[in-house]
Amino acid sequence: MTYGALVSQLLKDYENDEDVNKQLDRMGYNIGIRLIEDFLARSNVGRCYDFRDTADKIQMGFKMFLGISPTVTNWSAAGDEFSLVMENNPLTEFVELPEKHSNLKYSNILCGVLRGALEMVQMDVSIRFAQDQLKGDNVTEIRVKFIRRLEDALPAGDD
């Protein structure tokens, strides 16, 4: 099944764009929590030293799995938020959004993948689309904001 067919089926199964957006994010999250293992094994990179290092490794992941290198830019003054800017989003080639689906975040699966992968390396982040070529913007921009470092949790009774 192609990604477009998946999104099309979700649009048939759910009543509104927001529900589809949530499903795409949830699917991406489930992919991300597994994909991080493959990334770490194949890239042979160590722990991130800071959020800028994390951004560089995310860029490596995009190259490894999607064949593109988004530009890391628009850092916040506090250094806790940045943008991933893509000139070409491989998920949206040959795609046009129908007007009745103007609230659909077609590539929302990417936000879920990033959120899931970063959670597995103890980072709680907020991820959203700031610009989308499918909605007339010149580029696709994903904002990544660091919220907090997650503590390693031991299962109940293993302390």
Structure commentary:
The chain is α+β, with helices and mostly antiparallel strands and 159 residues long. The protein is 42% helix and 18% strand. The protein contains four helices and four strands. The protein has a four-stranded antiparallel beta sheet with strand order 1-2-4-3, with helices on one face. Helix 2 (17-43) crosses helix 4. It is globular, with a radius of gyration of 16 Å. The model has no long low-confidence stretch (mean pLDDT 89).
What is the tally of beta strands? 4
Shape: globular
Which stretches are low in confidence, meaning pLDDT under 50 for 5 or more residues running? none
Helix content: 40-55%
Helix/strand order, N-terminal first:
HHHEEHEE
* Biggest sheet descriptor: 4 strands, antiparallel
Radius of gyration: 16 Å
Give the integer mean of the pLDDT values: 89
Count of alpha/pi helices: 4
Strand content: 15-25%
Order the strands across the largest sheet as they lie in space.
1-2-4-3
Distance between the termini: 44 Å
* Secondary-structure content class: alpha+beta
Task: Give a quick rundown of the structure.
With 159 residues, this protein is α+β, with helices and mostly antiparallel strands. The chain is 42% helix and 18% strand. The longest helix has 27 residues, at 17-43.
List keywords for this structure.
159 residues; alpha+beta; 4 helices; 42% helix
Topology at a glance:
Blueprint: H1 3-13, H2 17-43, H3 51-66, E1 71-73, E2 81-86, H4 108-120, E3 123-131, E4 140-149
Antiparallel strand pairs: 1-2, 2-4, 3-4
Helix pairs in contact: 2-4
